[in-house]
Amino acid sequence: MQIFKPIALVKNLPINIECLTAHNDCIVVTTKQGHLMKYRIKSKRNATISANRDLDIELELTDSCKQFSKKPVAQIETVPELKIIITLSDGLIHINDYDNLEIVHQIIQKTKGATCFATNLQTQMTLTGEAQHMLRMCVVVKRKLILLYWKNKNFHEMSKEFNLNDQPRMIAWCSESLFIGYKSEYDLIKLTSGTTEGEIKNLSATGGRQPEPIVRILHDDKVSINRDENTYILDQNGDPYLKYSITWSDIPLNIAENYPYLIALLPSSIIEVRTIEPHLFIQRLEFAQLTSNLSKIKILTSCAGRSKSLMIAASTNDIFALVPIPLDQQKAEMVAEKHFELALRLANMQKKDSHDASTREIELQYAHDLFHKGSYQKALELFFNLEISPLIVIDLFPDLSDKAFTQESSNSTSAQQLTTIASDKNGHKSNGSIDGDSDERISALKDYLIQIRRKIYSSSRQPQANAVSTLESDDGLSLFSHMKSPRAIEKLKQEVDTTLLKCYLKTTDALVASLLRLPDNHCKLQVTEKALEKYKKYNELIILYQSRGLHRRALELLKNHFQNSPISGYEKTVQYLQHLGQDQLEIICEYAQWVLQNDPELGLKIFTADLPEAEQLDRNLVLEFLHHNAPQMEIPYLEHIIHFWNDIDSGFHTTLCLRYRQKVAPLLAKYLESIGNQVPCPAGQEPGELGELRRKLLDFLEISDYYSIKNLPDLLQNEGLCEERAIVLGKIGQHKEALDIFVYVLNNTKRAEEYCLSVYNKKLPNSQDIFLLLLKTYVHGPNNFSSDQLKRKLSISSASQLANDRSENNMNFSSKIIRLLAEHGDKMDPLKTIAELPGEFNLVSIGDYLDKTVKRKLQEGHEREMFRQLVMAKFYQVQKSWIDLQRATKIVIGDNTNCQVCNKKIGNSAFVRFPNLDLVHYSCKDRYGKLRYQNYDTIHQ
Fold it and tell me: What are the Polar residues biased-composition ranges (predicted)?
C-alpha cells in the first residue's frame, strides 16, 4: 500500500539543518550556525485541480533571523496558541516571540546546563466561550527536573524540584505524568494533585542496542517507549495499553505519529509506516536516493494542527514532506486489503456522519468478514449496531432458519444482497454461513437475538413515525425496512422468537420454559411444537399449549404420557387443571374424570387447591360432577369449602349433614347388630370409620348455623341418631325434647348439663332458664311419655337401646338434682327453683345451695348499693366542677360594652353570652343566630 507520497520541499540548502519543528502550515528550522528560518507550506502557483492537488506544494520563506543564537539550537518547540518559540541553546532555555523572532521574552537562568525539556499545553473553554491555555514545562538540568509554568509572558518556577539518580536523555509530559528516558531504562513520575511531589515508577529497560531512548506522546494520551526494534504503547499511568508490541524491521532512530499511523525513522534513511490498532505493516519509504549528497534523514516530525496532516522529514540540507493520499483513497486501499477496522477509523476522521452509506457498507463487509473468520460474537454485535434485519442475520444459520417462513417473509432477496456484498467486496465466495454446529456460533446468535428482540418489541410500541430509524438505507437490509406494517412486524417477531428458542434448545435448554412463559412470545406453533418434540421437551410443550390456550392438546399430551415419561404421573395433569378457572370448567371436568378414577384424593385437589382459579369454580356444578363420578369425594369436598373457604351456603351445609347421615346410618346399624345386647359406646367414640364420621356429624351439627332444619330431625329420628336429633332440636329451640333425649333415652345427665351450659353461655332468648328446664326434666320426667314410650317414639328397638332399661318409678334423680343445684344453682332463679321441687323433697339436702343463694343475693344487693353511691358521688363531683367553672368566668359590663347585633350599650339590660364570648341583648339573641349564618354563607361564597 502507498499511503504517503514523499515530496521534496527544499533541496541543497546552503546551510546545515540542526533542528526542525512544524505546526499548521509553518515549519521552523534552526541551523548549526544559529540561524532560524520560518517557512510556510503553500500550494504551487501552477497547481492543477485534481485528486492529487495536495501533492503540489512548496515552501515559502516568510521570516528569518541570522543572529537568533550564537550556538546551535539543541531543541526547539513552537506554541502558536501563546505566540512563543521555546529553544534550548548553549544550555539555557530561551523564549522568543513567534511573530517577531528578534524579541526575546525571557532567558531562564535557572535552567543553565539544561540538556532537554518537555512541554504540556492544556486548553479549556471559559464561560464566555474563549479558549484559555495553560502551559507547563519540565527542564532537565543534569540530574534535576525543574518545573515551570507560563504566566504574564514569562515562565515561573513551581515550588519544588525532582532530584534523580541518573541524568535523563529524553523527557515527555503526558497529562499528569512525566515519562523519562535514561540511557538504560524508562521511568514515570506521577504528579499528585496540587504539588510537584510524585511517585517514581520504573517502566522498562531501553535495550542493549538502542543508542538513545525514545518517548513520544500519542493520540488520546497514549505514550510510546522504545526498546531496540520494539515499541510499546502505554497509557498515561504507565500501564500497558496493548498486549503486543509494534515491531520494526530495524532499531528506530525516531518515531512520530500521524493518526492512525505510527511512523519510524530507521537507519539508512528508511521510513516505515505501521498501525497500532490493528497491528499492520503499511508502507516502507527509502530516501537514500532522494537526499542531496547522499546525506541521511535525521529528523522526522508531524505537522501538528494541520487539517490534512503531513509528516516532515529532513536531512542536513533537504526538507521532505510525506503527504498522505486522500482519506477516500486510503479507505479504498484498506478495504481492498480487508483491513476493515482501519478503514472505519479513517472514515470516522472525515467528520461526517459515521453511519453514512459508505461507512455502513464498510461496516457490513467487516461484519461479514468477521463472521466468515469465526468471530461470531463480534460480527453479530456489528450486525446489531448496523440495525441489519434479523431475518437476514438468521439466514446465515441455515441449520436454525425455517425455510417455509423464509419464503413467506420474502427476505430471500435481501439475503442474496448480503451474500453478494460479501462475495464481491471481500474477494471470496461465501454462502453466508459457516458449516457446523459450534456452541460458540449458536451462543453468539442467542445473545444477538436477545438484544434484537428487546429492540424490536420496544420499537413496535412506539408510534409508527418514531419507529423508523434515521439509519435506514435503501439497501433493504435494515431492521426497520422489515417493520413497515403490522403483518411484517408480526412475522419478524415470530422468526426471532422461534430461532431464539432453537438456540436455547442447543445451548441452554433451561431457558426454553422462561421464553415460552413470556406473555409476548411469538414462537411459531408448528415449528416450535416439532422442535420441542424432537428434544423431548414435554414440559415446555405443555407450557406452549397453555400459553396459546390449547388446553385439550396439553391435557391429551399429559394423558398419553402419564407412564414412563418425564411428565408421567397424575400430578402434572392436576396442576394444569388447577390453573384453568371457571371458563374452562367443562374441560376440567372432562379430564379430571380419569384422574379421579385412578387417584381420587389427588383428583380432588383439582377443585380444592389453594388457588383463586379453584376457589372461583362453580361449586354446585363441581359437587354435581363429584356426585356422579366420585361420590366418595363429596364429603371431603364439602368439608373443604365449608371449613377452609368458609362457605355459608345453606345448601352445602345441609348436603354435608345428609351425606354424613347417609354414611353413618348403615354403619351404625351394622355396629349395633354386631354388639348384640352389649352397651354401645358413646356417640362419636365407636370404633373405626363410624366413630370418626359420627364425631364429625356431631361437631358439625353443633357449630354450624346454616343447615336447613326443616326435615332434619325426622330424618335423624328414623335412623336412630338420638344425640344428633337432640342437637338439632336444641337448634330450633325445642330444649325440653332435647333434654328428654339426653336424660331418659341416653341416660347421660352429664351430657345434658353440658348442653345446658352451652345454651346458657350463648345468651340466646329464653336461654337463662335452661338449667331450670333441666330441673323440671329431672322432677317431672319427659313430656307425656315414659322412658320406654319415648324410646319407641324414636324407633329404638329394645335390642339397640342407648341406655339401661329402667322403669320410670325406679328412677331416682334426687342426687342429680342436688348436684345440679350445687354446680349450677347460681344460673337459676331461686324462687322458681324451689317452686319446682317436689313436695316430699328434703330441703335439708340442699342447705348448702340455699345458704350460697342467700349470700349471693345479699352480695348482689350490697354491690348495687355501692354502685348507686359511686354514681351519686360522681354526679356531685361533676356538679361542683360545673359550678366552679361558672364562678371562674367573669363578665364585665362597662360603658363601652355593646350588643353584637344592634350595637347599643347593654348597660343594665338582660343579656346573653355565647360560647365565643359574644354579648347580646336577651331580646337580640334570636337575631344573632341568623346573623352568624348569613356571615358564614357570605364568606364561603
Answer: 408-433
